[in-house]
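Memo to structure team: turn this sequence into structure tokens by end of day. - J.P.
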Amino acid sequence: QKSKATADITLHRNAEQLLAIKGVSDVSLSLMPFGFKPGTDMDASLMTRGLRLSMLPLPKMPGADIDGKTDVTLRVRGDWKAPRISGDLALKDGSISVKRPSLTYENVSAEIRWVPDKIIIESVSVAGDKEGSLKFAGDIMLSGFKPTRFNVRLTGEDLFVPFHPAIRARIHPNILLAGSMDAPRLTGTITIPESRLNLDRFVEQGPS
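Reply from structure team:
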């Protein structure tokens, strides 16, 4: 039997609304035997303003802590199997702390847009006082929720690479990752303006 499913969820802190989720979709529901199948007519939206990543029930990245304030406006319409997605995401006042090796990126930000069948990465920036900086920009083609093709450029300045405890290096990457998920192409250059090797420690510990 055809039915309608609706959702209306909000999250407030004091009088400030941090999260709002609204949606409606047709569904096919049966009791004997029990079955639940999303339909082809969906209209859902998600909005956040100043919501910290640490407040969301997201899977934790092993060995790293990520936080920051998010502003998201997202709308999903159409069929669950091939939805039309539009909206934007901004991350500000972000940070990433890595435990091993000990690295802290105090300045993390992102500007990302969704248009039908594409994610446009306006900019993703990660920088630390001692760790250097890394930036991403480009686009990712989608089929529903599944990435199909991509064209993303990565650049960096004085990026510290923890390759080995006995080796210290800083690099300036300028790399383009393009193609499909099955046949990616990686082109570009990596300049190494600074590197140091502690030979005694390297021999003692061996390759990592």
